[in-house]
Specification:
about 65% helix, about 200 residues, 4 helices, Nucleotide Exchange Factor Grpe, Chain A, domain 2
Amino acid sequence: MSRKEDNIKDEDKRVKDQVEDAMDEAINELDQAGDDTEAEETVSDNELTEEERMIEDLQKEKDKFLRLFAEFENYKRRTSKERLELFKTANQEVMTAMLPVMDDFDRAMNEISKSGDENLLKGVELIHNKLRETLKAKGLERMDVEQGSDFDSEIHEAITQIPAPTEDLKGKIVDVVEPGYKLGERIIRYPKVVTGK
């Protein structure tokens, strides 16, 4: 188990112990109040006020317990959500560091295919595919952006704008300079594109 998971479990245990202690105190006070009233046979006005005071104290302890319990439940929900988010994006730093390597492989594949050496191309292609599939298995996904796609500033990064080669490319993506990647649902690198004006 990781140190963070141990800390979360220790925190859960500590809050649970506090809740149990508060409940034990309330039960002990109630038991003491019951013992005191049984010991006395005569009922006076002072005892009635004492009983009312004990009921009021019990209500305060119940309220304190319910608030503490609700706070503990909220804490558990929040930490489990954070933990899930952490697991989904735990590899983000490593994946971000691997993206330039993927870009270099893509460029190498293009240059080797131009050279015409089939054996070299086949060998590099095998390594390239293995790297791409390994990263894909870890949650890395290449974003599909093509020439002629609509430009969306939320998911694309425009690096320049050029006159559109054709009328239908105005306001659309003319070229993709660098591909974008997602890790799970989170975009870890936005695709760099050239748009037409």
